[in-house]
Amino acid sequence: MRWKPWVLLLLFQICINKAQDEGNQPAKVAFPKEVDTCNGIFLLYTFDSRQKEYPRLKNATAQSWAFKSQLAVINAGTTELKSWQAYIGFQHDEILVSVDGAMPLNAEEFPMRLGKNGTHLIGYPHADLKTAIDTAGDLPQMSSLVKIKGTMFGVRLGGNIMPTNIKLENEGFKCPKAKTKNTRSMHVCCTKDPKYKAKKKKTLKFFPRRKADLSFTYDITQAFKGSYMAQVTIENNHPLGRLDHWNLSFEWMRNEFIYDMRGAFPRRKDPSNASSVPPDNTIKTWISQRS
């Protein structure tokens, strides 16, 4: 008898709260002076503030500090930038508590420990940056502002609080070493690499599936104005392992709420989630197996 994988399908009808979604529009960014000489993608990292946290320790290397910073990404070139990605070389064992205006790549949940490896950010919900030429210089359409809040360790008063580097990670661009201006800002201008040759990509209807013992797939099956339908597939490919009493959690990024569900039920039914949004503009929903 041939063993077959166990597959579960969940169907969702999801609505988007339009009134609250207007709050997710890209924030306005002021042009820094250095962007005037950039013909490409300009990145500016600014360290806003920090404050000593509890417990207050005598060991300076173990002392934690709450910090706030910003990353501005501005398209100062002649072509639109699709799905921008950037790297920030955090080096002080930072812990990210919240990121507004982008998403950490391969992140799990906040708080997120970075160590000394830095982090990779992808633009969300404002992922594509248009040019000044196509927008008549409309800054909100050609730039994105990321607000970062977290904890850093071991930096004495007067010490180096800046990351090691910032750069654009989109293919086809090259970035020199970022320049530090005073002790609280860093900028770099990334330009197109004339030697870059785009790789030929195979045309696929869907992204290729990854092999794993347990896989989760979230597919949008239908999209409408203000709502969409999604299908979640849980597939157990392990020949021996069982998955009993499973639970899933979703972190909504555009103020969604579930209107209808088939194949599972929410563990917590809170109508206020449809009209109230936490400070970080995310709502987490827990889904449980239907007996």
Automatic annotation (TrEMBL):
InterPro entries: COBRA_pln. Residues 272-291 have a biased composition (Polar residues). One of its GO terms (cellular component) is membrane. One of its GO terms (biological process) is cellulose microfibril organization. Keywords: Glycoprotein, Signal. Coiled coil: none annotated. Residues 268-291 are annotated as: Disordered. Residues 1-19 form the signal peptide. Belongs to the COBRA family. This is Uncharacterized protein.
